[in-house]
Amino acid sequence: MARVLIIGASRGIGLETVRQALDAGHRVRAFARSAEKIALSPPTLEKMNGNALARADVEAAVRGVDAVIQVLGVGAGELFRPVRLFSDATRILIAAMEAARVKRLIAVTGYGAGDSRGSMSLLQRVPFQLLLGRAYADKDVQERMIQASALDWTIARPAVLTNGARTGRYKVLVEPATWRNGVISRADVADFLVKQIEDRSLLRKSPVLA
Length: 210
Known about the structure:
By secondary structure, this protein is of the alpha/beta class. The protein has helices spanning 12-23, 55-62, 85-100, 122-148, 186-196, and strands at residues 3-7, 27-32, 45-49, 67-70, 104-108, 152-158, 160-162, 172-173, 183-185, 208-209. 35% of the residues lie in helices and 20% in strands.
């Protein structure tokens, strides 16, 4: 089993990934500004308080791990201001991983990031740009940084997120011709992320999940 660092571990997809990674038998280092509040306490879980934008925190977090799962998010109130969290945090993370010789990175962006935006219809693209344009412009930069790195990366692009149960019945759409919008539960996104810890079939791929 692997030693896994999960960045953004205190809520949403990140917290669900912590749960599922532990259930799968991995040793988990949960990294978040409020990691100590995570209501889990198995011996294979290490809670590490830290800021994804603080270089020293991230450098400490990546030491001794086999893989990193990066799950970042911004609040609704931040969507209407310039967003730099995704690119700034990823720049710090890539440098820290390279220095620590940690190769495996599994990152979450979203459907509409990078070249997946071209598969949206005009009716989808207009409200997407109005509501999420600033955040996804920064996710575009984030993806380019990851893709240009020498890391063993996989980028997950989930469609519209729900709080539904883990079903395992989601689609992993690798080929651009198959990309489409849809819905997927955070628990199913976590299921995909945990599988990628040991599954190398999607190295240097950016599938859409729906």
